[in-house]
Specification:
The protein is α+β, with helices and mostly antiparallel strands. Helix content is 51%, strand content 20%. The chain has a single domain (2-7, 14-163), classed as Trafficking protein particle complex subunit 3 (Muramoyl-pentapeptide Carboxypeptidase, domain 2, 2-Layer Sandwich). Strand 3 and strand 4 form a beta hairpin.
């Protein structure tokens, strides 16, 4: 950044394209750092909720509230939100008008001891909140059907969705 200050202070003309490229790179680095911080924050919150021995329904409700605040419009946006918040890498296994089956690799809940605290309740809530935030469904119920129960394993979630009547 210092070289930019020297360049701007000198008499040499500054090319707009180099400044624009520098701005884009700086913005991307800030976004990437924010995403990493966000993922660490959520993993920390999950660990804290478990340390405080909160009931599973409260952990799920916290995930639902967080997912509901997401700005998502499609299933692809939901999958991206899961990854950007550090909850894991989600993939669609099965999809119909009434349900979704999602596989989550490297689940944040499993990294924090899912077997000791009711599985991946936070992720269940987050997925339900995100799916509701798309505006395509009136009701969404997400349940974990298989839990990896250890870091690096994958979990399976089934979302039952009731579509809005048009």
């Amino acid at each position: 950044m210092r070289s930019h200050l020297l360049l701007l202070a000198s008499e040499a003309p500054v090319r707009a394209s180099s400044m624009a490229a520098t701005t884009v790179i700086a913005n991307e680095l800030r976004r990437a750092r924010r995403d990493l911080d966000s993922g660490a924050d959520i993993r920390g919150r999950i660990a804290e909720m478990r340390r405080d021995a909160l009931p599973v329904r409260e952990i799920r409700a916290a995930g639902l509230a967080s997912g509901s605040r997401e700005r998502v419009e499609s299933l692809a946006d939901v999958l991206y939100a899961v990854q950007m918040h550090g909850l894991g890498r989600a993939a669609v296994i099965e999809e119909s008008n009434r349900h979704l089956v999602l596989r989550l690799h490297e689940s944040a809940c499993c990294a924090n001891g899912a077997e000791a605290a009711g599985g991946c309740a936070y992720v269940e809530g987050f997925l339900a909140g995100c799916l509701l935030a798309t505006g395509r469904y009136d009701q969404v119920e997400v349940r974990e059907t298989e839990c990896g129960m250890r870091p690096g394993a994958s979990c399976l979630f089934r979302a039952e969705c009731k579509s809005k009547v048009k």
